[in-house]
Design goal:
The chain is mostly helical and 392 residues long. The chain is built from 25 helices and no strands. The chain has a domain of 233 residues. The N and C termini lie far apart (59 Å).
Length: 392
């Protein structure tokens, strides 16, 4: 029986293209911020153990028709009629309905002809990516191989679909590639998106394997996985997941990504989580994020807690987060708190960041402060030139 595919499509495909193309043309990992999760399982563990039963309103709408579509295959004229219906659809709802009919009747046997019906949409369209994700889930290697031969950008989506539906087979295919082929940006990003849908832990292992192989993009892969985990569950669950990643820079990257969103929701819970982490850059970033958000919600309580902390790297990063947030309301207070940081490098960074806020709000007063700030000439220039760069 044909597996229902639509529930898996909408939360990942826009970001597949953004990362696959973005990593090729630029180094900004922020291009997938428009992505929204469509399924929110109660826990990450349930996703990996009972993935096929994840509830989604779209599943009920499509599961009853997917098997009948396979039992009554369309002939060529009927498939081309579906394409005509899509081209003539007026408005987004009619277009979505026409496109859903194509996905409903898609099969490994008719995929090439079906693909002809959506080519006019362009390879940057959401429908193009959804179609190839569905094809990859249905046909696996055949869909991926077809994508490798076409001029359109469909490889990432087809490989994501395959990795989501059959992670073992997709990984075996990837492992059999030459080192040059494994460096394919689209295959890597497709693998990550598909594997994280099947099981986030498989995606982590893939990223760790890439790190061991010397892939310079491995940290971006783990960051991307953390984003997807956040979208499909609660921040507390994502935090627990990140804590289970082997210690090192990959875990630090995941913790750093998750900490900010967790702190946005519950800075106190984020602080408690941070205290459970071993000393690391990830822990420092979690502390900074928690005190930054706490300073916005309740600066008095955050200041009291900060004052009770003994001198330590943890206290330094907590003060960094607090100082940079309160500086937005009162730069002088932020600068004063930044000055309490004991570590010289951390204190310097905090002073420059709070100083830039001060300079944006009151350039003359900030220039006067800079003369006795303890920052050297180069650091002072960095405080003042940032503002001019933003204006230009």
């Amino acid at each position: 029986m044909k597996k229902s595919l639509l529930p898996h499509l909408f939360w990942s495909l826009i970001a597949i293209a953004a990362y696959a193309l973005g990593s090729r043309s630029s180094q900004s990992p922020e291009q997938d911020t428009t992505l929204q999760a469509q399924n929110s399982p109660s826990s990450l563990s349930s996703r990996s153990t009972n993935h096929s039963t994840t509830q989604n309103p779209l599943k009920k709408a499509t599961s009853s028709t997917s098997s009948s579509a396979q039992n009554t295959p369309l002939n060529e004229n009927e498939i081309r009629q579906l394409g005509l219906n899509l081209k003539s659809a007026k408005g987004p709802l009619a277009r979505r309905e026409a496109f859903s009919q194509i996905l409903k009747h898609l099969s490994p046997e008719n995929a090439l002809l079906m693909r002809e019906q959506i080519l006019h949409l362009g390879h940057n369209s959401q429908e193009f990516r959804e179609f190839h994700y569905a094809w990859g889930a249905l046909a696996g290697e055949n869909a991926v191989l077809n994508g490798l031969e076409t001029p359109e950008r469909d490889t990432a989506s087809t490989f994501a679909g395959w990795a989501s539906a059959s992670p073992s087979a997709a990984l075996a295919y990837f492992d059999g590639l030459s080192p040059e082929e494994k460096n394919s940006t689209r295959l890597k990003w497709g693998a990550v998106y598909g594997l994280v849908e099947a099981d986030p832990n498989l995606a982590v292992k893939f990223a760790l394997d890439q790190q061991e192989a010397g892939d310079p993009e491995s940290r971006r892969l783990i960051d991307l996985i953390a984003r997807q985990v956040l979208r499909s569950g609660e921040p507390a669950e994502a935090a627990a997941w990140a804590s289970s990643i082997p210690a090192g820079e990959m875990q630090d990257t995941a913790i750093s990504r998750i900490a900010q969103q967790y702190a946005d929701e519950d800075p106190i819970a984020t602080l408690e989580w941070a205290h459970t982490l071993p000393p690391s850059d990830g822990k420092n970033r979690a502390l900074r994020a928690s005190f930054s958000e706490w300073a916005q919600e309740n600066p008095t309580a955050a200041a009291d807690r900060l004052s009770s902390m003994s001198d330590s790297p943890e206290r330094d990063f907590a003060a960094y987060g607090f100082a940079t947030r309160v500086a937005q309301d009162d730069p002088r207070v932020g600068i004063e708190w930044a000055g309490t940081i004991r570590d010289e490098a951390t204190r310097t960074n905090a002073l420059m960041e709070t100083g830039r806020t001060f300079f944006r709000q009151d350039p003359e007063a900030a220039r006067e402060w800079l003369q006795n700030s303890g920052l050297n000439e180069e650091q002072q220039q960095r405080v003042t030139t940032r503002r001019r760069g933003r204006r230009g």
